[in-house]
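INFO batch 0412 | record 1 of 1 | parsing
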Amino acid sequence: MAESYCLHTKRINDFIDETFEGIRAPFTAGLELTAKCNLDCVHCYAKPGRGHADMSTDEFKAIVNILVERGLLDAYFTGGEIFTRPDFKELFLYTKRKGVLLSLLSNITLLTEEHIKLFKDYPVEIISTTMYGYTEAAYERVTGVKGSYKQFMHALDLLRANGINFELKYVAMEQNYDDIYAMREFGNQLGVPMVIILDVHPMSDGTTTPMSFRLTPEKAFEFDIRDEGRRSFWKDVARDLLTGEIKTIPRRTAERFKDGYLYPCSIANQHVFITSDYKMQGCVRASYKQFDLRKGTFDEGWAYLQREFVDKKSSAHYKCNKCPNIRFCEHCVANFMLAYGDEEHPDPFFCTVAELRKKFVDEEIARLLRKY
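INFO prediction complete | emitting tokens
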């Protein structure tokens, strides 16, 4: 159950998988408008890249034109903080007028009435925002900026009062774990979608400091079975495995692994990520393989990413492609590379959580068999 950066993403990816299976094109894209941010979150992946000059307005428009020509259907803006760009409105309108479905990833602390008016005139698919803590103290332990909690809550009120489509995310860390159940209840009270992320990734340059803020695998799994929504999800997995509705290994993953490929996901196949310094990556996390769009064409970069990701084969010693727990795992080759400098080095955190989930599902299957 790998996390998505927002729930809309999962829906559009499912649609693309079902409709365009076997077609390689950048149907979805992440567009990093800037690495600059008004917050200083302890776990931020983008911190190492904040010193560079962002892509120009003309460069942005040029890459959007190319992506649309190549089949772009859906994109998201991310940062840094997207609202720090003085030309945000121009970039937003340019992309929307190209007919692209557009989601926004933002901390929303810089959201204004002007943005609200823009989004009422030109609706977004969703604004995906992270609430780093239920209390002011927990929130600002993560963001490192005094007053940011009040700014966030004010922006949340603006979104709700104006009917702007949004979702909440919550990255559970040692700094804010005490708020996790209050956060879930808060999301339920608001009646909005909520994504709770139970692991923290390395920075884009491979710095692993954020990983020290992770919950223990046992704490992460505890939430899996105590939270009503997640517990129901894993119970449904047990039922669907028992009835044959799903397989132990997801179909696409099984096919990719059977053919010896290392990356089983849509990285550089039906998705591409454009960094704020105008480089192409296979996805937001795969910063270790980039193509500079200022030194070559998009098509050259797209071919480069195919060689580095889509066509890359695993070694005979790779463990994940033989693991029976893969359905229960947040398996991500890009994360392995960032954390360990080795694409085939499994992350023990994911392995332990997957084992615990698998045990729970096996016990649930046994219970269902006894019942019937």
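INFO post-check: The two ends are 27 Å apart (CA to CA).
INFO record closed
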